[in-house]
Structures are given as structure tokens and as C-alpha cells.
Design a protein that fits this description.
2 domains; Rossmann fold; 314 residues; alpha/beta; Arc Repressor Mutant, subunit A
Length: 314
């Protein structure tokens, strides 16, 4: 076929850069990206694979050919056209594709509409309520008080969070605490986290946030901070690696709703924990925190008109 440009095996899957792990190929994306360049018979093979990945992982070459109504050599040509060395190489990479979970491979099915006509209401609001209830039931109030005491007595607080939600939550923690007069900074770059941890002293504090508690860069930065005798607080999953290396553990288990389109519910839980700790730290700081809040409010209202009971600088 004119203009056809099959992916090379090296370009598709075997590139390794010095200092980096071996790239695990996303074979499903390779099929989709190559689809327009495939021959008609090869497209039928692609359709079979994309329509039923679970079948294609376990099926033999003959079974795939039969379902696609093509010859077995066509299946082999399809595998090479998308950048694989052959059927065996293709099946190995296809098996790796299901590591994300089969629910990410099926076509999205929105929930049934509720009485207000929206299919999203119960999914989002119900998960948010469940997350908040989980915090109320699972988080130890004594640990919240310990965390507040550490924040109130710290010379400086460094907040670590890596990835989308955790990085945003680290920034939120900074926003909650600085207005009480706490010297606090949020970091989401792994190298900056390590460098910051290297500067800490015994009267400093780290707050580490991780939904899974398995993020190595965060765990290593916390361990480094503890090496220099800084105190540590974590907001994470129970019995996780991160929880094991921290002085104060604010942990909650939030089972995720099996809807790939819905944002993770743990965000609501972690925000609630951040608010609990921040409020407790504010009361622990007492008059100095109130004076800082007054100054912030005064200068915000001096800059723009507003009311006393409005969000404080949000």
C-alpha cells in the first residue's frame, strides 16, 4: 500500500534512554495510531483486537483469524505492521496493556439518569459524601491534635505531593496554613523535594501527601528529612509504605467507584483532613494566628470591596 509506514520494532517499543527504565509499549495506542495505514484485512484484525482485548489476549492466532475472517498470515502481517516482531511479541505487549484494568478497556457506560435527569449527580455527590463519612469514622482525632501541635511548633513546614491530585493538595495545604502565619512551602518536583529535605533541621516539619502511599520519590524525601531529624506527618492510605515512615499518620481508606470518568474520591477525603489539621493548628496558635488572619482580611478588603464573612483571599 502506497504511503504505508509500519512502525519499526525499536521505535515502537525498545527505545531505552540512559538513566531511564525500559519503555513499556502502549500497544493499543500503536494499533489506533497505525489504523489508517493498515490494509483492509489487517483493519479487520485491528477491529477484533480493539473490540475485545480480553479475548485477543487469550486467543490463539487461529481464533483471532477466524473471528476477523482473515487468514493466519494476515494476523502475522498485522502484528508486524503495528511494530511488533511477530504474533508472540504482539501477544506479550497486548497482555501488558491490561495492567491498567479491564474497566479502562471497555467502552464507557454512563450511569442511568436520576430523577433530576442527570446521570452524574449520584455518582459525584454520593462518592463525596462517602469520602467525608470515611474521614469522620477512620481518622484518629488524637493524631489530628498531634499534627496540629507539630505544625504550631515548627520553624518551617515543607509539604510534599507528587502527581496531579497530591500536588494540588500540597498547594492547598500551603494556602490553608500560611494565613495563620505558618512558614510553609509546597513542593511537587521530586528533585526539589530531595533538596528541600536535605536542608531541614530538627525543629522543621514535613507534611507528605500521597493517595496510595507508594510514591517512591515522596517516601525517599520523607526518609531523608527524618535522617536530618525533621518531624513528619503523612496524609495517605492506611498501612502504606509512606505511613510506616512518618511520625504522625492521618490515614483513610477510600474505595474508588468503578467509573473511569469520575475523578478520584480520595480528593474529598484528603481536603477534609487538611481542613481538620489546619483548623486545629489555627486554634493551637491562638492569638498570633488570629492577628495574622486579621491583617490578611484587612488588606484584602482594603484592596477590593467585600463583606466580613467572605472567603479569606480565595
Amino acid at each position: 500500500m502506497a504511503g504505508r509506514r509500519p512502525l519499526t520494532s525499536e521505535a515502537a517499543s525498545h527505545g531505552v534512554r540512559p538513566g531511564y527504565g525500559k519503555l513499556i509499549p502502549d500497544i493499543l495506542s500503536q494499533i489506533k495510531d497505525s489504523y489508517a495505514d493498515l490494509r483492509p484485512a489487517e483493519r479487520r484484525v485491528a477491529d477484533v483486537v480493539l473490540d475485545d482485548v480480553a479475548f485477543s489476549v487469550d486467543a490463539s492466532n487461529t481464533e483471532i483469524a477466524r473471528r476477523a475472517d482473515v487468514s493466519e498470515p494476515t494476523v502475522t502481517r498485522f502484528c508486524r505492521a503495528i511494530g511488533c516482531e511477530g504474533v508472540r511479541d504482539f501477544k506479550l505487549k497486548l497482555a501488558q496493556s491490561v495492567v491498567v484494568g479491564r474497566m479502562y478497556l471497555a467502552a464507557p457506560q454512563p450511569p442511568a439518569p436520576t430523577e433530576n435527569g442527570s446521570p452524574l449527580w449520584s455518582t459525584v455527590f454520593s462518592e463525596a459524601r462517602k469520602a467525608l463519612n470515611a474521614v469522620e469514622l477512620q481518622v484518629n482525632p488524637a493524631e489530628v491534635v498531634k499534627a496540629a501541635d507539630l505544625i504550631a511548633s515548627a520553624h518551617q513546614v515543607a509539604v510534599f505531593g507528587l502527581g496531579g491530585s497530591s500536588a494540588a493538595l500540597a498547594q492547598e495545604t500551603q494556602y490553608r496554613l500560611f494565613r495563620y502565619g505558618v512558614v510553609v512551602s509546597a513542593h511537587s518536583d521530586p528533585y526539589i523535594m530531595r533538596m528541600t529535605a536535605s536542608t531541614l533541621k530538627p525543629n522543621d516539619l514535613v507534611i507528605a501527601i500521597s493517595a496510595t502511599g507508594r510514591t517512591n520519590e515522596v517516601i525517599e524525601a520523607v526518609a531523608l528529612a527524618r535522617h536530618y531529624r525533621a518531624r513528619t506527618i503523612c496524609i495517605t492510605a492506611p498501612d502504606s509504605e509512606l505511613a510506616k515512615v512518618c511520625d504522625v499518620r492521618l490515614t483513610v481508606d477510600i474505595p474508588e467507584y468503578p467509573d473511569t470518568m469520575k475523578p478520584t474520591a480520595s480528593r474529598f477525603a484528603f481536603l477534609a483532613i487538611i481542613d481538620l489539621v489546619s483548623v486545629a493548628a489555627g486554634y493551637r496558635l491562638g492569638g498570633s494566628a488570629q492577628e495574622t488572619l486579621r491583617r490578611v482580611k484587612y488588606n484584602v478588603l482594603a484592596h477590593r470591596k467585600g463583606k466580613e464573612l467572605e472567603p479569606l483571599g480565595d
